[in-house]
Design goal:
- The structure holds two protein chains of two kinds.
- By secondary structure, chain A is of the alpha/beta class.
- Chain A folds into two domains: 170 residues, Periplasmic binding protein-like II (D-Maltodextrin-Binding Protein, domain 2, 3-Layer(aba) Sandwich); 208 residues, D-Maltodextrin-Binding Protein, domain 2, CATH 3.40.190.10.
- In chain A, 47% of the residues lie in helices and 13% in strands.
- Chain A is built from 17 helices and nine strands.
- In chain A, helix 2 links the parallel strand 1 and strand 2.
- The radius of gyration of chain A is 25 Å and the shape is globular.
- Chain B is an all-alpha fold.
- Chain B has a two-stranded antiparallel sheet.
- Chain B starts with 5 loop residues before the first helix and ends with a helix.
- The chains are: A alpha/beta, B mainly alpha.
- Chains A and B meet through helix 3, helix 4 and helix 16 of A and loops of B.
């Protein structure tokens, strides 16, 4: 009985092996004879939370290109850049690669791994020039489709605002008045913490601080070395953010990013300073987006023009060594077009496409965020371009200075000086 | 061949013994060299290079080390990680050795439930560090955590000890296991003799049990030392690769990971600098182990 069982197992394994060998052989033949017929393109990004949504978007491409399948393989955000680089260096990289804006994405082009898309992208000259710049060299070579931008502002729970008869503030004074009312009422004013290094800088400082330091023109002056972070306008931004400290929840020093989202998403706080990408996060947390409101960063003085952080988030590049270059070029053309833009924005509200095509936004919050850009001076995150190309990077320094300021380790002046001084250790325009 | 000369014969025998021994050692040595020694040496070589990417290509000599020890923005991180690592090691050693010892005493007593507690004390050790980190993070959450609104992980003074407690909680089972084995190994005549002489519990522990366990104390301490100076997972899972708040929970392991694999935007220094950090780590650990050998030379020879 035992031997019989054994023999049966051996036979099963043998059959399986033969079948596998046959299948491998057949598929190899198939590849040879029908190379043009069926291809799979590997696509990678840092957004592991979007697998299902992305698959639905890419299915539309396969519908019109039945022989091309898109295999979406995202990598965890914090490991993405190292992983992408390793793939490219060892010739195991994906065919289609999401690129971060400016210097981080640029390293992949400088490494010689990316295909020149200048002549591939349809209507490239109709994309917003500021977005094209984020994935182009100074000589005008574009290596990434300018794809997605995100914005920063303030979410609020409509029911809590109604309870106190509050209106969306448009100036900083009104904003502080709203905070005071909520605090007096015993509410958690903000679902905001100071634990994670990046949120205070990327979202709060770049988003709400821009109105104080003067948005894009100030950022350009800073990069050129004509302005310093210790100048009064930048220090004013640090001070404004610092003044929100007393409205943070108890224990905010130890409150991490995911807990912040959960706290607001579950209605435990009145406001949340966040990014447009969080529309989907709050939906996934089960909150009804009709009950959530949003307003743009309040301006410093009544009558000021809104300085709006519309950050260049993701471009799409093409691996030069892709084994299916023709198919990949087809895909690149498609993601630069209207169908992709519309499908992507439907699936991922809060991610805004740079594609020069008429699209309709189905989500009202996303629509509000997008409309705000129409009347504002748009800018990107303060020390992202050039100032974060080397270590210690502006990004990582802000990640120390701002949380430090919020727990009273630094004064606003000290926080600004900390970043300025350390950047001066390598950033040439700051050295004088 | 006839063995008439005893001297040559003995030499031949000795040679044969050595060939025999080498034949047994070689496969293990080969595996050790391929998977450990060569990578370590290669990473030391990488620490002499600069440039982007996984394999930096510009030879810069000792420039990476010069940068690490002379430029404040780098040296502050290395010294910070070194200091944190020592504090972390001391807390874990204290908890695992002292508490582990007393818990081992408790579970080796002939009281009801001792065997049960002995078994479950090892349970946390079988969990993944990532799971333990997640559990502690939830417990210490200032909004819905078990320990109130206090920002345990947001305060410089409590964040690192919190990590040390999490690691100790997980691995105290190992200490209990090792100490309990040691206590079980003490001949019962010794304890009986002590009791007949009228020794109380304190005296018995102090004069009989503790001396017998000294070699195990040394071994546990060594295991903790090596584990803690290469510890990465608990920082990664509880305070991220940025060692929040503001790098105050940074250990050598997390510093190395961030330096080598992150982009400058997220605090990375490039692979060459990362390799230099890992080389420093190898030296610190080797030095520590050497000190341990020196300190516990006597007790290792002593009999259990």
């Amino acid at each position: 009985m035992k031997t019989f069982k054994h023999a049966k197992a051996v036979r099963t394994i043998a059959v399986l092996l033969v079948a596998a060998a046959l299948a491998a052989g057949l598929s190899a033949c198939a590849k040879k004879t029908e190379a043009s017929k069926s291809v799979t393109l590997n696509l990678t990004s840092w957004r592991t939370e979007d697998i299902e949504r992305m698959n639905r978007v890419n299915a539309l491409f396969t519908k019109t290109h039945p022989n091309i399948t898109i295999n979406f393989q995202p990598v965890n955000d914090t490991e993405y850049d190292a992983n992408m680089r390793a793939g490219l260096e060892t010739d195991t990289g994906a065919d289609i690669i999401w690129l971060r804006s400016y210097d981080t994405g640029r390293t992949a082009y400088d490494g010689g791994w990316l295909y020149d898309l200048t002549k591939v992208i349809p209507d490239l000259d109709k994309f917003p020039p500021s977005a094209v710049k984020a994935w182009s060299t100074a000589e005008g070579v574009t290596y990434g489709v300018p794809s997605v931008g995100v914005t920063h502002g303030v979410y609020y729970q409509k029911s809590i605002f109604e309870k106190y008869g509050l209106k969306e503030p448009s100036t900083w004074d009104e904003f502080i008045a709203v905070c005071e009312t909520l605090k007096k009422g015993g509410e958690n004013v903000f679902a905001q913490g100071a634990l994670d290094d990046w949120t205070l800088y990327e979202v709060v400082f770049s988003g709400l601080g821009a109105n104080f330091y003067g948005g894009e023109s100030a950022r350009q002056a800073l990069m050129a070395g004509k302005a310093k972070l210790t100048d009064p306008n930048f220090v004013a931004a640090f001070k404004a953010i610092d003044s929100l400290q007393k409205y943070l929840p108890k224990g905010y020093e130890g409150l991490d990013y995911v807990s912040m989202q959960q706290m607001f998403g579950s209605g435990q706080a009145a406001m949340f300073m966040g990014g447009s990408w969080e529309i989907g996060v709050f939906e996934d947390l089960g909150s009804d987006s009709a009950k959530i409101g949003w307003f743009a960063p309040p301006v410093a003085k009544a009558g000021d023009k809104l300085q709006y952080c519309f950050h260049v988030d993701a471009g799409i590049g093409l691996n030069k060594k892709s084994k299916n270059l023709d198919a990949a070029i087809e895909y690149i053309k498609w993601v630069a077009g209207a169908e992709y833009a519309q499908a992507f924005m439907n699936e991922l509200p809060g991610f805004f496409m740079y594609t020069p095509a008429k699209v309709t936004l189905t989500n009202s919050l996303a629509q509000e965020m997008f409309d705000a850009a129409g009347t504002a001076d748009n800018t990107v995150r303060t020390v992202w371009e050039k100032l974060s190309a080397q270590s210690p990077s502006g990004n990582s320094l802000m990640g120390v200075a701002l949380p430090g300021m919020m727990v009273d380790k630094y004064t606003p002046e000290q926080a600004a000086a900390y970043v300025q001084d350390q950047l001066a250790s390598w950033y040439a325009p700051f050295k004088n | 061949m006839k063995r008439n000369d005893g001297k040559t014969g003995r030499r031949f025998d000795r040679l044969r013994t050595w060939v025999f021994r080498a034949a047994f050692l070689l496969p293990a040595l080969l595996v050790y060299a391929v998977v450990l020694l060569i990578p370590i040496l290669d990473s030391m070589r990488l620490s002499l290079y600069s440039g982007g990417g996984l394999v930096p290509t510009d030879f810069v000599g000792l420039a990476n080390y010069v940068k690490i020890f002379t430029e404040e923005s780098f040296s502050a991180h290395v010294w910070g990680a070194f200091r944190n690592n020592i504090v972390f090691f001391l807390i874990v050693t204290l908890i695992q050795n002292a508490l582990g010892f007393f818990l081992a005493l408790a579970v080796t007593r002939a009281v009801r439930g001792a065997a049960f507690f002995r078994k479950i004390s090892f349970l946390p050790t079988t969990l993944s560090v990532l799971v333990v980190g997640f559990l502690f993070r939830q417990m210490l959450n200032p909004i819905w955590g078990l320990l109130g609104n206090y920002p345990w992980l947001g305060n410089e003074a409590t964040a690192l000890p919190a990590l040390a407690v999490a690691v100790s909680w997980q691995f105290i089972g190992e200490s209990i296991l090792l100490y309990a084995i040691g206590i079980d190994g003490i001949p019962s005549e010794h304890l009986e003799a002590a009791r007949i002489d009228g020794a109380d519990w304190m005296q018995e522990t102090r004069h009989i049990v503790l001396p017998a366990l000294m070699p195990i104390v040394g071994m546990v301490t060594l295991l903790i030392f090596v584990g803690d100076f290469t510890q990465f997972d608990i920082v990664y899972s509880m305070t991220t690769t940025m060692a929040n708040p503001r790098y105050t929970t940074d250990l050598f392991g997390s510093l190395f990971y961030r330096a080598a694999f992150s982009t400058p935007v997220r605090g990375g220094w490039g692979m060459g600098m990362g390799a230099a950090v890992s080389t420093i780590m190898v030296f610190v650990v080797s030095l520590g182990v050497a000190v341990w050998y020196y300190l516990f030379k006597g007790s290792r020879r002593g009999e259990v």
